[in-house]
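Holo prediction — manganese (II) ion.
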Amino acid sequence: MEIKLPLHAYQVHQSRATINKIHTLVFSISLLSLLYYRFSTLLQITTGKIPWLLITMSEFLLSLFWILGQAFRWRPISRTAFPERLPSDESLPPIDVFIFTCDPKKEPTIGVMNTLLSALCLDYPPEKLFVYLSDDGGAPIMLYAAGEAYNFAKLWVPFCKKYGIKTIAPEAFFSSLNDEEHCHMSSEFFENLQDIKSRYKVFKQLVENAVQNDESCLTSTRDRPACIEVMRGNAIDELDKRKVEIPNIVYVSREKRSNHHHNFKAGAINALLRVSGIISNAPYVLFLDCDMYCNDPASARQAMCFHLDPQISSSLAFVHFPQSFYNVSKNDIYNTPLRTCMKIWWHGLDGLMGPPITGTCFYLKREALYKNSAQGDINLFDGERRFGCSDAFIASICRKHVVIDKDVASNKVVEEARAVASSTYEENTQWGKQIGFLYQSVVEDLLTGIFLNYKGWNSVFYDPLRPAFLGTGTTNLNDTLVQNKRWYSGFLQICFSQFFPLTYRPSRVPILQIMAYLYILLLPFNTFLVLCHSTIPQLCLFNGIKLYPKVSDLWFAIFLVIYLSSLIQTLMEVLITGGSLKLFWNEQRLAFFIRSTSNLFACFGYLKKCIGMKEIDFTLTNKSSKDGEMIKYQMDVYDFETDRKFLLILTTIVSLNITSLAIGIRRAIMEETYNEWFGQIFLSLIITVLNYPLIEGMIIRKDEGRIPTSITLLSILLVIVLYQARVLLL
Ligand SMILES: O=c1ccn([C@@H]2O[C@H](COP(=O)(O)OP(=O)(O)O[C@H]3O[C@H](CO)[C@@H](O)[C@H](O)[C@H]3O)[C@@H](O)[C@H]2O)c(=O)[nH]1
Ligand SMILES: [Mn+2]
């Protein structure tokens, strides 16, 4: 009897989980006693009730976050896949690849083409791959460049396949040529290399010239019809004169009308689901943002190891790979929140129901977006009201065996595809409400991921040694803060939607999974906590109100245990996932920046939306950097050319803490009361030290990335106002 070897395996990080559980126990007891101390003292004191109440609330919130966060630490796992055990190529299912782009100004065309070219090189039967480029900006240059990329692909794909190249995005490949990966190659390889290198240069030049000559077309008109172009054909391997098949490319730009809401990326995804449903209808879809190229051709087969395992496949919605970045520096000062998410949280959720979607780098089972996992066939009752009025599309969703139509480029197919990409197609349907990606939040990915869990779907997180995808991380402070602000606005939209996990069918999902979702979704409220801790104890130092127990007091030990042990836990997590002490410190600082600005303005933004002043927007992240930006970033120097409202908040906090530190020390010396003021002085000290780069930006730096003097002066003025207002806290 033939024994079938498993396609994948997993390992629970048992020792880490056990340590975490013991820690949780000790920590919870300390937290309870701290809260007891706070509440019992609050009832006794006569002066300073307001600051005591604020700080108690804030510590209560902190404890809540801490407890919710333990869900990520309960059962962390790691996985391995064995693609060599997959069945033969004939029995592999087709895959559609979706690449999203929407603005050639912020998303350099050549970068988008690199993502496209890398996807064409995936190690998968080429006739089973269809690569779709969704261009939400409808820029003519993008279509032109895709055509040129297709021509170049006819050389590039055979070259990569022949020599087993792993870095399949040309730009990254040519800039990593000295790496060990290629040192054992034959002399023939190096000859061909010269040729392909010059061909790439020509291709790049063509695209860049076109971009330059075409400035006016970069932003095309707001109103435009849908445009769909199928590019297909075979390549002749010029080296061996062999016929080589390469995957098809389909360029899609959906219809846009200024009187219609287009629902940002989620709208683009849903249009593409329908278009691809009509053209190729592969059962699995790889999602890629234009700034995330494939860095390992193996990912498609790796993902299939999970999707094709009969034991888990019936409820498996997607296999997620981490978002890693090729351009982040060792001590990364800007992207650490994603690091924590990919290295800690998602491994933790993988041990529960699986992580939610984080926008890009995942292989999704198409039908998960149309039905519950336990449901057999997709329910076609009332099909038109749910899926819209295209018969061809409705037929596609219940087609079991996908036969890719030989004539996909025929007028009839393209005509039908154009119809489902129209801006009115979704009117009076369930698209964006129950079907496809959901529209209620600008973080469509998280919302849809949570929704899939509620429909009984699981997911898998696979973090192979060689990053399967690499993207562009933010390299300046403004982009980071704006990007985070969008995410937090999106979280608030989910909190106040019908999908809030506590109230939306809570019985369908395990409690630990719900706790993890709550932790993420409530993150914007962190702003209260951070703003409270960085202003109230400081103002109380001016006032002479004591908020923490004496050092000699037993209660002080409780504070110390809580503070130190949570700090050590975070530090350990950074260290065991390959980070350094410096990275840990930078991470603390960035968290401070984000919580006091991005979170705060996300809350304001949401309030504005509620009173009807302004809708929440999908502000696109920049994928190109200014001159000198990279150098500064690599040297860990902050770029304070940042939105002034962000800067003002940060500088005011630092100025306040420096002042309270000075006044506190003076008070302690004069009154000989170190013992009593230690807590508050220490807090001011730690905030000042953590934010030292801000002080440097205000006082020492002279370059253009410094903090403008006007902001510094304004922040000092604000501190004076706060100082005068301190009596309000008495
Ligand atoms: O109206 C839009 C807006 C965006 N995009 C595309 O969506 C992708 C993500 O946009 P980006 O500005 O790069 O967002 P990030 O800040 O990197 O986004 C993260 O968070 C988003 C949710 O807020 C997810 O959609 C992303 O996949 C995830 O990487 C890009 O390819 C865009 O071209 C569109 O197609 N149409
Ligand atoms: Mn991005």
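READOUT: The chain is about 50% helix and 10% strand.
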